[in-house]
Amino acid sequence: MFDALTGKLDAVFKKLRGRGVLKEEDVKEAMREVRLALLEADVNFKVVKEFVNKVQERAVGREILASLTPGQQVIKVVHEELVSLLGGTQSKLHLSSNPPTVIMMVGLQGSGKTTTAGKLARNFKKDGRKVLLVPADTRRPAAIEQLKTLARQVGVDAFTSESMDPVAICRAARDFAERSLFEVVILDTAGRLQIDAPLMDELRQIKTGVKPHEVLFVADAMTGQEAVNIAETFNKDLGFDGVVLTKLDGDARGGAALSVKAVTGRPIKFTGMGEKLDALEPFFPDRMASRILGMGDVMSLIEKAQETVNAEEAAKLAKKLKQSSFDLEDFRGQLKQVKKMGGLGSIMGMIPGMSKMKLPDADVNDKELVKVDAIISSMTPRERANHTIINGSRRARIAKGSGTQVQDVNRLLKQFAEMQKMMKMMKGGKMKDMGRMFGGRLPR
Ligand SMILES: Nc1nc2c(ncn2[C@@H]2O[C@H](COP(=O)(O)OP(=O)(O)OP(=O)(O)O)[C@@H](O)[C@H]2O)c(=O)[nH]1
Ligand SMILES: [Mg+2]
User: Fold this and answer.
1) What is the pLDDT, as a whole number, of residue 117?
2) Which class is 309-439 in CATH?
3) Cα→Cα distances 218→145, 180, 189, 238, 277, Å
4) Which of 105, 115, 146, 278 to mutate for ligand 1's pocket (most ligand atoms within 8 Å of CB)?
5) Per-residue pLDDT tens for 130-155?
6) What ranges do the domains of the chain cover?
7) Which CATH class is domain 101-283?
8) So what's the architecture of 3-85 in CATH?
9) Which has the higher per-residue pLDDT, 403 or 16?
10) Ligand 1 atom nearest to 188, measured from its CA
């Protein structure tokens, strides 16, 4: 859905990338084009203005990283500001330490409340939690049946009640859930075509009567700017904790996704990527920003930065290692750095508390690096992000694609898995056995 925006930004950055030196005028010209591209993607004009100002301020003159060319510098700043525009870090649901956690779905008619309630129920159930779906939409006769059908499909309970009063239903459901030891209660409320006072009244009464831990505003991304305006009103009149942006699988221009956090101050927590029950994805600002900028660009930018390692990059990597969030892509980047940085020992040296540990350096020579690079290049992005999906047939394909043997692929994966395991141990504070890992050999 961000295809048009991505294409336009890419064209802007292509012009910048080739230059050795950027004048203030070049940056301004580029930012004018970024501004247009964002407006065309239906991003709120105030948000665009603020965004462009911030980037410009940071990109002109200041913050020059030795390892990046000025053009890359601008792209980096745009990426960072985009991440921050989208909310910075991932926002998860608040789960109550004293179950049941009550989640209330709100939003206009047809935005996807009921479907999202079903999707969330499915996720919680997969985590082994006992979920109760509560149909609190008594306006539309078919609504209750719709939720019950979803509950059956997911394999969770739906609350039944004789009452036609949404507030009474929600209260009764909460009491019932407490008595019956449910862990999550999801209230599916009614929608309207437009915001009206009776709807807001009803929702406010439910909110005060049941005190949900999490009010999720469900917005249809296809409605563009309108979704953002409605979100603003809902937040003022009712207040919510997070946004679910549905129908991102459609051809929405994406402006809603980019504006909603800035306008409401509330983060996007999930995105709906289809009608099916498995089509709900947690929202990661950095991943979305990378997607908008075109993953390839960002990756090559990072690779470039890694070519000339400086302390800042190294510290970032050390942080990643410590958080054990690194994947095969990082692994590859790291192997390249290892040589430049004087072995893994010096990377470890940048992790607080580990600087005094003596570690044998991994034995890395150029030929091995080329091989590892080729193997990882033959993987799909999904495989790089999650090595556990690489089964036998995938291994054979990767070996063929990289001109290596299946044994080489196996060895690399084994080593990577070991490394990941070790990172987890480090995170848990157990630092034994580290030498063994870093003393390990790379595939030949
Ligand atoms: N493509 C796509 N369709 C979706 C998504 N989420 C919901 N839908 C569809 O949108 C339509 C409306 O969804 P509902 O979940 O019934 O919406 P609602 O907010 O509960 O609507 P009311 O109960 O009438 O207020 C259905 O046809 C869903 O299948 C999504 O992420 N992608
Ligand atoms: Mg509904």
Assistant:
1) 98
2) mainly alpha
3) 20, 28, 11, 13, 16
4) 115
5) 999 999 999 888 999 999 999 999 99
6) 3-85, 101-283, 309-439
7) alpha beta
8) Up-down Bundle (1.20)
9) 403
10) 20
